[in-house]
Amino acid sequence: MRFKILKNTEKVFGFKNEVKWYNTIFISMYHVFGFYWCWLYAFPVKELTVFFAILMYCINATGITCGVHRLFTHRSYKAIPALKIFLVICFCSAGQNSIYEWVRDHRLHHKFSDTDADPHNANRGFFFSHIGWLMMKKNEEVKKQGKKIDMSDIEGDEIIMFQKKYHTFLKLFFCYILPISLNIYLWNEDWKCAIAWQAFIRFLFVFHAELSVNSFAHLYGYQPYNKTIVPKENAFVSSVSFGEGWHNYHHSFPFDFKAAEFCDRFNWSTNMIRWWARQGWAYDLKEATPEMVSSLMKRAGDCKYLNDELVIHER
Q: Cα separations (Å) of 225 from 21, 281, 292?
């Protein structure tokens, strides 16, 4: 009976690695305490406070999608120093790990997607791929393969290495101290309400929107480009992550700055990068050619969606 319970627990939560109790308790209590704090202090709230929380959500999403993901991890385009610094600040305001850690883990995820060397292997279930991987120590395969990831471009980037060195301070300042202070001093929001909307509501919405790419976009959706891999096209994920949910395409062509074939499907990040390119701030935008896309679809795409997607693609 005990063995069966353990096996069921492993199936549901993906518990194979040793639990990191500090992370588990901290993440759990952050959610519980955040819900309690918001229940007490999130309302009444000023309109500017809500607007600013939404603005911060957009800034955070920009830092993650356009910055640490498409620029720093995949090098799918290049940016002038001023834009790079802006994206680093946007990313710091999301309260994530350092850029160095984020890039290393994401490159490892792409190289060994949904295997034991993937930090958030979706084959271990929804909970693990969404948030459980942050609560457990990395398994031996992840640590072994992680040491082989080429990080020379990151290590040679002074801006990113500066962020790595001062990561804790930059995260605390741009994610918590500055946004909360602006609420309090610019439009006299109550400090408890400001904390509710910035430290909990805004932060947790961004946190789970990002994590949904690892879970929802690997477990739910369709595979018109390559049915031999786990990642899927998921409109919900794209809508909350500024365009990161077209994951079957992205894993098929990770170098494409659009992270999708079409840019009119909840892909605001792509439109933003294109606007920067028109201003001369971004350049060398990489894209998969139509021939590359149609060739892969015909060879490995899911036939249930193949014809419709090809018709759209060839117009």
A: 40, 31, 11
Q: Which structure tokens are listed for 125?
A: 């279930």
Using the structure block, give the residue that is written with the tokens 């050619």: 289
pLDDT, tens only, 242-273: 999 999 999 999 999 999 998 777 899 999 99
Nearest C-alpha neighbor of 233 from the set 262, 255, 210, 271? 262
Among the residues of 67-157, which ranges form H helices? 81-92, 99-111, 126-130, 140-146, 152-155
Amino acid at 169: F
In whole angstroms, give the CA distance from residue 88 to residue 159: 8
Scan for tokens 């080429």, then name that residue. 150
Peptide bond into 179 cis (omega under 30): no
CA distance 146 to 119: 9
pLDDT tens for each residue of 50-106? 999 999 999 999 999 999 999 999 999 999 999 999 999 999 999 999 999 999 999
Number of Cβ atoms within 10 Å of the Cβ of 284: 11
Structure tokens at 58: 């957009």
Residues forming a β-bridge with 222: 233
Is the separation of the CB atoms in 193 and 111 below 8 Å? no
Residue type, 104: R
Cα separation, 309 vs 298, in Å, equals 11
The Cα 1–Cα 6 span in angstroms is 9
CA nearest neighbour of 289 among 258, 244, 251, 245: 258
Question: Buried b vs exposed e over 242-258: b needs ≥16 C-beta within 10 Å?
Answer: bbbbbbbbbbbbbebbb
**Which pair of tokens denotes residue 157?**
């980037």
